[in-house]
Task: structure prediction
Amino acid sequence: MINDDDIEKAKGNIDDLLKLRDELIKASPNFNEMKSRLNWYQEAGTQIPEQAENLYSLIEGPVQSILALSPSNLDYSSVTGATGSFYSVSGDTRSIVQQYSNEHFTLIKAYDELNKTEELIDKISEVIEGYREDLKTFKPKELLLDAKAAYAKWKAGAIENFELAAAIRAFQDIFKGCLRDAWVKAANLKNPDFSWDKMSETLGKKGSGCKKSLLSVKGTERKYHDDFSEILKKTKTVSSDEMDTIFKGYIEHVYAIVNLVDLEIMK
Result:
């Protein structure tokens, strides 16, 4: 015969199942997004078989993260971490495929459809909105939305490359400052020089290779900083297509970061 302990266990089991349901509902958009990306990589491997191995090697981490998910360990943080891992290799993926732009234009167009810049900006803004107030002191969300508005003006031909670069560089500087301040507080440090390596170790989500993926985009962060600096100073000239690629690439880079960073540390 059952007793109160059995009833409490049954209630607890129901709560666990409901929690799993809630996590699945919350993670469903991410699952659909990742499945679309997996489909794209398979199609890219089919269309460009000589690059299949290189393309697949880029997503080994995200795929392993997905394979590690199960009903017993499913949580939204792990799912977003896997999503961030996909975006951490978007620049390398684009570089490979653009070598074949003449023969595989539709493949590049399909990849761009997976990375809708304005939608990614909105998603990043939502994450930043969840940061604690001291990290939002210098208004990173507002600066990102300013850059989004500048991007719209740039696409309409109302402003030049250097003006768009100035807008997004302003956000980049402040966002990096948010990462630094979060790292300093979490690691209980006193005004150290910024270290991307140490920041990644402190802020990266545990498991799913998130710390490794966050560390891997260190060079990417530096490259975009240099690109934007040179363009806004007019010491580097780029075409409209090149500017668009740089801007989109940076937004994908930031989207990777906000998904790889442990949000609980940022709250």
Q: What stands out?
A: The chain has two domains: 1-115, 117-267. The first helix runs from residue 4 to 47. The mean pLDDT is 94.
